[in-house]
Each structure stands twice: as C-alpha cells, then as structure tokens.
Design a protein that fits this description.
CATH superfamily of the domain at 2-92 and 158-229: P-loop containing nucleotide triphosphate hydrolases
Strand content: 25-35%
Number of helices: 7
Pfam family, one: ABC_tran
Organism: Halobacillus mangrovi
Number of strands: 10
Bound molecules: adenosine-5'-diphosphate, magnesium ion
Order of helices and strands: EEEHEEHEHHHEHEHEE
Helix content: 25-40%
Keywords: ATP-binding, Nucleotide-binding, Transport
GO molecular function, one term: ATP hydrolysis activity
Largest sheet: 6 strands, mixed
Protein name: ABC transporter ATP-binding protein
Distance between the termini: 33 Å
CATH architecture of the domain at 2-92 and 158-229: 3-Layer(aba) Sandwich
CATH topology of the domain at 2-92 and 158-229: Rossmann fold
C-alpha cells in the first residue's frame, strides 16, 4: 500500500489570482508508517492530504496508491477508492449531532465493503460504555475518539489526519496520538498526521516539511519517541 506522489501540482483560482497550493510535490510513503506533515498555515498541507485521499483532483503529476493511479481514475472510481482506502480525521470532529456514538460510527461502517466489527471498534477506541450517548454529552477527546472509530471501522489502508489534536488540550491530545499509534500498530494502518507541533513530528517514522506548496524537507526519525514524550509547543 505504498503511496507514491510524483510531481503533483494543484492550483486554486481565487478571483483574478491563481494560488499554487502544491508545487511539484513528490513523496513516497511506505506501508504501516506514521508520517507527520509540518509547515506554516497556507503551505499546502491540507491540499496534500486531500489529493492523496481522493477528495480533491490535481492538475498534473501522478499519485499511485498500491498499483492504482488516482490521476487517471474517473470520478466514480475515485469515490469508491476514497471510501475503501482512506479514513479522514479532522480538527473538528464532524459528528452528526442527532445520532448516538454507535450510530455515528455506523455511518462509516455502511460506506465500506470490508468493515470491522462494531463492538470491537468501540472497545478499541475506549467508547463501548458510551455507545448510546450523543455528541453533546461527550468531551472533545471522546468526540475525536468517535471520529477515529468512524474512520477506522471502514478498515482503511490509511488514515489522513488533518490537525487531529488542534482543538484539544495537551493531555487529551497525547491520548489521541497514543490511540493513532495503537491503530497503526494493531491494524498496520498507515497514518498521515498534519500538525503545527514539532513534538508530534518526533513520534513519526517520517517527517515532511512544507512551505509555499513545496515539500522542502523529508527525513526519517531513527527512533521515534512515544506519544507520552511529545513536547507541546
Ligand atoms: P495548509 O493546510 O497548510 O494551511 P492549504 O492546503 O489549506 O494549506 O492551502 C494551501 C493554499 O491554497 C492556501 O493559500 C489556501 O488559501 C489555498 N486554498 C486552499 N483551499 C482553497 C480553496 N478551496 N479555494 C481557494 N484557495 C484555497
Ligand atoms: Mg490545513
């Protein structure tokens, strides 16, 4: 399930100006890795995740996931790819307020051809005893756990996490990172995490730094630290 991004360009038209959100971005992500994407606001981090996950199209270059070439897929195939391969986690948990924990996770399960077991998934994220609660009855960290379960139950090949700890306090953020690491180790899921926090970079196998749409640096951590040791900026 290697992800190979090769020379990808993506622009947005914003009135009269063209914003070059990705400039010749190239990147290789190996199976079962945790990859952190660092960089200032507006540097193209979310755009990179969105093109890898098949949310957005791009103008030139190729993205290959396993042997599939996203650039040549028609829209319906790209939707199918996204459902089966990619799980998205956002800073805002995007839970449906009128559905219980279990019903929110069921939304993810129904999208998948090959879903995981509901009870097991609830237990894995530590939310089994709160499965009948509604989002407003949960803390931020618990809501993010539900969002992770909703992505995880699809049994995705990779999780794309866009600032997953951005709205959480330090301790809760560490628990979410620990859960993502546990998912990576338990299921072998590749995890890409966008963050502003250099410390989160230290727990990843690979760190990518972006600036003005370019991937300006890529390096591997020889011995990634545990989430507990993450220093928060
Ligand atoms: P980051 O996640 O690093 O903050 P983004 O990938 O969101 O960066 O954005 C990269 C650039 O593309 C920014 O200049 C941003 O304003 C622009 N951009 C992102 N999404 C859109 C959009 N839907 N329409 C127009 N411009 C966009
Ligand atoms: Mg972003």
């Amino acid at each position: 399930m290697t992800i190979i991004v090769n020379d990808v360009n993506k622009t947005y038209a914003s009135g009269e100006v063209t914003i070059h959100a990705l400039r010749n971005a190239s990147l290789k992500v190996y199976d079962h890795k945790i990859v952190t994407i660092l960089g200032p606001s507006g540097s193209g981090k979310s755009t990179l995740l969105n093109v890898i996950g098949g949310i957005d199209r791009f103008e030139s270059g190729t993205i290959k996931v396993a042997s599939q070439d996203l650039s040549s897929m028609k829209d319906s195939d790209l939707t199918e790819f996204r459902r089966n391969y990619a799980g998205f986690i956002f800073q805002q948990y995007n839970l449906i307020p009128t559905l219980t924990v279990e019903e929110n996770i069921e939304v993810g399960r129904e999208l998948s051809k090959n879903p995981l077991d509901m009870k097991d998934t609830l237990e894995k994220v530590g939310m089994y005893d709160k499965k009948d609660k509604f989002p407003y009855q949960l803390s931020g960290g618990e809501q993010q756990r539900v969002a992770i379960a909703r992505a995880l139950i699809k049994n995705p090949k990779f999780l794309l996490c866009d600032e997953p700890t951005g709205a959480l306090d330090e301790n809760t953020g560490k628990k979410i990172l620990r859960l993502l690491k546990f998912v990576n180790e338990t299921y072998g899921t590749t995890v890409l995490i966008i963050t502003h926090n250099q410390g989160i970079g230290e727990m990843a196998h690979t760190v990518i730094k972006m600036s003005s749409g370019e991937i300006v640096e890529t390096y591997d951590n020889v011995s990634p630290i545990e989430p507990e040791q993450v220093k928060w900026a």
